[in-house]
Amino acid sequence: MFDVVIIGAGVTGSAIAREVSKYELKACVLEKELDVACGTSKANSGIVHAGEDPIPGTLKAKMNVKGNGMFDKLQKELDFPFKRNGSLVLCFDEKDMDKLEELRQRGIKNGVPDTMKILNREEVMKIEPNLSDQVVGALTLPTGGIVCPYEFTISLAENAADNGVEFKFDSTVESIDKLEDKFIIKTNKEEIETKLIINAAGVFGEKISAMVSKEKYDIVARKGEYILFDKAVGDTVSRTIFQLPTKMGKGVLVTPTVDGNLLLGPTSVDIDGKDNVDTTREGLESITSRAKRSIKEIPMRQVITSFAGLRAHEKNGDFIIGEAKDCKDFINAIGIESPGLTSAPAIGEFIANMVAEKLNAKVDKKFNPIRKGIPKFREMNNDERRELIAKDSSYGKIVCRCETVTEGEIRNSIRRTLGAKTVDGIKRRTRAGMGRCQSGFCSNRTVEILAEELGVSKNEVTKFGKDSKMLF
């Protein structure tokens, strides 16, 4: 029997798993997909929000600001791509400049460091010369940052697994029975007993909660579409560019990614299904028309792909974190939409402390906070490359030319803790296939390597699991 079972291996579930692994507890993560970060955590803006936007006093405000402050230490421990590039909130009407001050004051109330400044047009154009002629001023947010959302999630999960947390993939929760002193979870594969459950199931959190609790939640899948541009235009802006919210909504953001691309989006549309991540002509046209308010020129010839993700929006508007009122030892971490990525470390710590107190758990003195990522050939100088190739010649064979990803990196991504089992799993760990040609050249070799490492035929290799076979 487990002490703790976490349902969901997105960024929230993985952050909770890592924090729980700091205690002497037998813990397990159940994930219905074949890998971590297969839902909201793989398709979002990758923004570490400063914390000026949430309403003061809400869980969103508290977790956002605390989580933001945890990223520097986490990056040193877990070795994932993160950069504090800062953010700007743009104003397009002189009459609205006082709203920037209101936003600044809200940030201070939320606990954002008082380093925020309001700039006039001349000042803001000096630091971001490619902004549009419509901009009249901006609020600076120096603590804002950018992160690779899936590499961050993978790093949390790997470290949790290295510290003893068991991950069970392709495991869909079908029912939960609450007995006097334990839960029995039935999945598509087995029955699992546990003392305590943490529900971090994203857009399906409402469904999991309803298996044991009569508390009503209304979680809607809110789709956001994005456009990704080539690295050739990654320096269009250096900061994350937000638009001052108006009656027409929050607008779209324009941001560099931590990997050097340019990203525009998202849209915000509530949908009925919870698995529809199609992009639409209307969505992409909406992004470009609204982004023109922020930057002078949108380099459409440099678009390399578009994608969509779903956010778990709870209609009351705030995160739902805590024990169900009518079900002891069942803890929810649901409705975690933006700024959920930023808040995940703080949510993980908060819930792990709650679990440790409930189960009277001792701190595990053997916990190791350090996780090393896959060596990135593209970021090395030639001396470092020669040294690596001398140890393993497969690092001297380039597979993905766009992103300079080697065979050694791909094999490492499959062999390591919670290693890749699909083409998309390799892509998220190494960036093989994420470049300008979008895997046009490297996919064949990636499939071959994956088949070799997993000991299966190439016909069995999938893009992301289930029926997504690469070859027939």
Automatic annotation (TrEMBL):
It comes from the Bacteria. Residues 3-353 form the FAD dependent oxidoreductase domain. Residues 398-452 form the BFD-like [2Fe-2S]-binding domain. InterPro entries: BFD-like_2Fe2S-bd_dom (IPR007419), BFD-like_2Fe2S-bd_dom_sf (IPR041854), FAD-dep_OxRdtase (IPR006076), FAD/NAD-bd_sf (IPR036188), G3P_Oxidase/Oxidoreductase (IPR052745). PANTHER family: GLYCEROL 3-PHOSPHATE OXIDASE, GLYCEROL-3-PHOSPHATE DEHYDROGENASE. This is NAD(P)/FAD-dependent oxidoreductase. It comes from Clostridium oceanicum. The lineage of its organism: Bacteria, Bacillati, Bacillota, Clostridia, Eubacteriales.
